[in-house]
Amino acid sequence: KAGVTQTPRYLIKTRGQQVTLSCSPISGHRSVSWYQQTPGQGLQFLFEYFSETQRNKGNFPGRFSGRQFSNSRSEMNVSTLELGDSALYLCASAKGHDQPQHFGDGTRLSIL
Amino acid sequence: GEDVEQSLFLSVREGDSSVINCTYTDSSSTYLYWYKQEPGAGLQLLTYIFSNMDMKQDQRLTVLLNKKDKHLSLRIADTQTGDSAIYFCAESPSGYSTLTFGKGTMLLVSP
Description:
Chain A is mainly β. In chain A, about 0% of the residues lie in helices and about 55% in strands. Chain A has strands at about 5, 10-15, 20-25, 30-40, 40-50, 55, 65-70, 75-80, 85-95, 100-105, 105-110. In chain A, strands 2, 4, 5, 6, 9, 10 and 11 form a seven-stranded mixed β-sheet that branches. In chain A, strand 7 and strand 8 (about 75-80) form a beta hairpin. The mean pLDDT of chain A is about 95. By secondary structure, chain B is an all-beta fold. Chain B is built from no helices and eleven strands. In chain B, the strands form two sheets. In chain B, strands 2, 4, 5, 9, 10 and 11 form a six-stranded mixed β-sheet that branches. The chains are: A mainly beta, B mainly beta. The interface between A and B is medium-sized, with 26 and 24 residues.
């Protein structure tokens, strides 16, 4: 059974640009969550989608947005990139609420 | 508010047992998790425990939960060099999939 797949694995952008990250959940999983991991702040929750609806959102500015498609695949978008957005972005999927989350290997985003 | 705390570093010798500790604050947590992260990789789900359980054993891993003290521990028996990694404790409140993580404990296993 394939795990959570995130693409691309690495990205380099410059300040002011925008970026879209993609996540394909484990087959049959309908919940997709996104997390940001940085050395200073650790792992922080961005948002969660379930059946194409955003169920919960973390404390991040509006530049961070996401969506989920009918096949449960999800995308995350960051606009007007800042140096502080450099991080490992992790996607996790679960069968549903209150179910264990399984993570992908992440997308490492570097802002120059 | 929610907060999860872990010690930052643990060093053991190969073959010894490792115990990683974690404290949490959200009394409504339904699940408590342990994840492992190796360099350059994502998070690997090691094990999890329901908040109505005291203990869970899975091969070399034993999780102990003390709800009264809001204390969670992960014991790794017969620790191997391949167990060297960062271990994260996480909690999830009831009805939500949001995970709140600790800062992680770096486990170093020496031969």
